[in-house]
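Z., the sequence and structure:
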Amino acid sequence: MTKDQLRTTMLRRLKRQKEEERRRKSRAIRRKLFRLAAFRKARMVGCYVGLPYEVQTWQLIEAMLAKGKRVAVPWVQPRTKRIMFSELRDPAMDLAPGAFRVWEPRPSARRPIPVNQLDLLMVPGLAFDGRGHRLGHGFGYFDRCLARLGTRIPTVGLAYRFQLLERLPTAAHDCAVSTVLAA
């Protein structure tokens, strides 16, 4: 199966999942994350704002803020094809739909955080394998971000169990995450 065929298959499965099941599994993933030593030590956590069919991160972000964590969320710069991070203080006030219909910081609410100041980064994916490789939407934004991070900062893929595959097709530019949490 090609990457494009796999993307289509995984998107279909993600979108067919029942909302209550998505909420239940997202809560379980959140509990697993909160038990991770890397999470407990992290002061500045990078976290994507999930699309409706992905692991729900809005509640995760609110819970992290309530725990006193500093949270940075990405926004994309389509011209440079890079992800930038902004410290988030109030999701309801700071976020708005941006590029690719993903919620990101409004320009007036951006508080830039260099990626190397993150202590931990949550990464989305359509699928992950046992080596931490991920299949994204195909634009390469997170791969470029992961390449900038190297292995110094722990990275965590968040997924539903059916998104875990034995092996994904990879290319030289693909970057793996250090941990995948699934429910």
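The first strand starts at residue 44 and ends at 46. Residues 19-35 form the longest helix (17 residues).

Let me know what you think.
H.
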